[in-house]
Amino acid sequence: MTAQSLSDQSRLPRRILMSGGSGMIGTALVRSWQGEPIHLLRLVRRNPLPFDASGAETLLWDPSSTQPLSDLDRLAGVDTVIHLSGANIASHRWTRKYKQEILSSRVGSTSALVNLLIRMNPLPRVFVCASAIGIYGDRGNELLTEDSPGGTGFIAETCISWENATRAAHDAGIRVVNARFGVALSPAGGALARTLPLFRLGLGGKLGNGREWMPWITLDDTIGALRYCIQNESLSGPVNLVAPNPATNAEFTHALAAAVHRPAVLPVPGFALRLGFGEIADEALLASARVVPQKLQQAGYRSLDPEIASALRRLLSTG
After folding, report:
1. Do 129 and 178 touch, CB atoms closer than 8 A?
2. Average pLDDT of each block of 10 consecutive residues along the chain (319 residues)?
3. What CATH number corresponds to the domain at position 88?
4. Using one digit for the tens of pLDDT, what is the confidence trace for 90-101?
5. 41 close to 78: Cβ distance less than 8 angstroms
6. CA–CA gap between residue 92 and residue 80 (Å, rounded)
7. Rounded to whole angstroms, how far apart are CA atoms 45 and 58?
8. Helix spans in the chain (H)
9. Number of H helices, E strands in the chain
10. Is 116 left (phi over 0), alpha (psi -120 to 50) or beta?
11. Reduced to 3 states, what is the DSSP secondary structure of residue 194?
């Protein structure tokens, strides 16, 4: 994590509300606050104890209900809200039913949370809502910034609706950050953890033709950038959370193989990915998005891991 994201202790949020914080990013973000004067409240959907294992106070909510939270007074004093909810895109084949779950878990929960926030008095200072670089769709070699228009396809259209669901919060006067996450790399979870066993056996290889751009970011930089977005009032609207130097799939494959000292000579052709994964192959595994973090760079954020080769060497030497 960069020192700049921690420099102004006087502006650290005191009461933070988080939803969807049990995944890799949410868990790491909560861990980053340990020892700081923060009271964390977590929205949970099932049988909560008063406090969870991290020491956060838990609040039961149901985003599909007309009354998602029974007692709005529990949110008194919250000045920062972080929303990370969403069904896993890659864990199931995309049946019509599961695509609806992907959509409702993002758009529906965001709308429900926004309706709670705009009723608070005073309003939260900042609302950071997850989004994804999938909003750009498959764009080949086009250089993509936050000013680039959204793409087409299920993922892109889901992300567009997801970000649109935050509009009422912005209109109410809350600073909204739509955090467009790239592929967060950590040996402890996510895409890198799933890929590592194959590469360590020398069975890794590029996907498709290997020319697809992969907007990656280390987990450490993900957390550093999130904290920077919370504290830096100049950041609002869509913010790309990616490394400043995107890599092609072939470059990522080469760097990962080098980091584990194994060859990577077994490419997976596109037709095999389509056969195994269905629609998700073209929209995620084979999609190309050359995304850069223009807003973060203009705001002064300095990436801890700007290059894929050195990032993977560091992660795998410490992870």
Report:
1. yes
2. 44 82 92 91 83 84 89 92 88 85 93 95 97 96 97 95 98 98 94 90 88 96 97 97 96 94 82 69 82 98 96 87
3. 3.40.50.720
4. 777 888 898 899
5. yes
6. 32
7. 10
8. 24-32, 96-103, 109-117, 154-164, 167-171, 190-200, 219-231, 249-259, 270-277, 279-280, 294-298, 308-318
9. 12, 13
10. alpha
11. helix
- Identity of the amino acid at 190: G
Q: How many CA atoms lie within 13 A of 84 on its CB side?
A: 22
Work out whether the CA dihedral 22, 23, 29, 35 comes out positive or negative.
Answer: positive
Residue with tokens 């995620």: 284
Amino acid found at 62: D
Q: Smallest Cα–Cα separation from 94: which of 283, 295, 287?
A: 283
| Segment 275-300, tens digit of pLDDT | 666 776 677 777 999 999 999 999 99
Whether residue 3 is contained in a domain is answered as no
Does 260 fall in a domain? Answer: yes
**Residue 169 near residue 114, CB atoms below 8 Å:** yes
Domain of 131? 12-318
Number of domains in the chain: 1
Question: What's the pLDDT score for residue 9?
Answer: 42
What is the secondary structure of 237-286 as a DSSP string? EEEEES-SS-EEHHHHHHHHHHHTT------B-HHHHHHHHTHHIIIIIS
Q: With contact defined as beta carbons under 8 Å apart, do 44 and 61 qualify?
A: yes
- The whole-number pLDDT of residue 319 equals 53
d(CA 145, CA 139): 12
Q: Is residue 290 part of a domain?
A: yes
Amino acid of residue 229: C
- pLDDT of amino acid 94: 82
